[in-house]
Each structure stands twice: as C-alpha cells, then as structure tokens.
C-alpha cells in the first residue's frame, strides 16, 4: 500500500527543517507547495502534522517556525525543577489555585483518607524557559500536612518542600499516561489550541512506609514534552 501524499511531503519537510535550524521561519505554504509540486491542501496537512509532532511551532500573525527539541522528562519520582535544570532549562511555576477541598470517593481512596476529609488542592502552570508546558494539580491530605500552606513557596518545588521541610521520604509511585484533548480552560492556561494533542499523567506517590503522599494530575503539551522511562527485566 502506497503512503499518503501528505505523509511523503511531511517526511521530506523534515529534511528542510534540519537545514533551516531551530527558530528559523518556514517558507510560505504556497512557496513550499510549488517547490514540492503538490497542492496547498497537501502541504497544509503535512505542516499541521509537524506542528502536532512538535517539529514546527505556529505563531499567530507571525508565521510558522522550526521548533526547539522537545523537553524529555523522566517517568520517575524526581523534582520537576531539578529534571529541567539538568537539561539546561529554566523551570518556573504560576499558581492557579491553592485551596482546601473535600475528598470525594476517588480521592479518598487514592490518599487513604475518609470521604469528606479536607485535602490541599494545588494547581499550577509549569513553565520551561518562560513558556507554559504543563498544568499540574496536586492533592495532599490536610491531616498529614497541616502546615503545607505555611512552609511551601507557591512557585517553588513541592518535592523539595516535602522532602526538605516536612521530612517525607518518597518510596514508590504509580503513573498512568494517556493522550487527551484539553478543555477550553486548560488550552487557555497553556496558550495552546484545543486541537493540540496533550499528554495526561495520573500519579499516586507513596513514602517508604507505603503511605500515600500525593495524588497528581499533570497535563502536558504534546508538542513540547516527551517522557522517558528506564525498563529493566
């Protein structure tokens, strides 16, 4: 079976991007279509897929540009801050909400608290080099961490606060990764379109005694972030 024409064009465009280099502007769609001998519709489809893949970035009113490589985050119980810094990037956070909410059935099960118990809810936009890449919502038991609001710097590392100031020792965690489409609110916070694929992570972390520490929902822009896991037999 022959490959779709737009896929063939997309493959050839990758060579063009490598020649242009990071940050370079992509020639106009009509120019590329003429150069490749295809319709503008075919070229547009190929460009859209490269944007979704994170190889190109569209800037409204400015054009389309060769994107920087995706950030690769480890699937591990490590600090987001330290993981980014290790790759030479500057991490950042912006608080969307920091409040107490009531645990529903699902959250009570994840944190091993009673339904109706108060839990901390911390929602923050995650940045890399000043650009939004993720939206993270973390729930923790108020009974276990009653002083969290007093000791946590809202834009600082939650992992470092838990281990350094509250004496938590992370033991293990479970993480589920899936692809989703962002809600209008999530897309707005991440400065993305709703058509952009997102990576959704659900994680429950436990300490060395097996007690739940946190329940985390992290939404990442699929064009900016990838994940790596080390597998052993």
Automatic annotation (TrEMBL):
Species this chain originates from: Kribbella soli
Coiled-coil annotated residue ranges, if any: none
Keyword Ribonucleoprotein: no
Top-rank lineage group of the source organism: Bacteria
GO molecular function: DNA binding; DNA-binding transcription factor activity
SUPFAM superfamilies, sorted: Chorismate lyase-like (SSF64288), Winged helix' DNA-binding domain (SSF46785)
Classification via Gene3D superfamilies: Chorismate lyase-like, Winged helix-like DNA-binding domain superfamily/Winged helix DNA-binding domain
Keyword Protein biosynthesis in record: no
Protein name per the record: GntR family transcriptional regulator
HTH gntR-type domain boundaries: 2-69
InterPro entries membership: Bact_HTH_transcr_reg, Chorismate_lyase_/UTRA_dom_sf, Tscrpt_reg_HTH_GntR, UTRA, WH-like_DNA-bd_sf, WH_DNA-bd_sf
GO BP annotations listed: negative regulation of DNA-templated transcription
Keywords annotated in UniProt: DNA-binding, Transcription, Transcription regulation
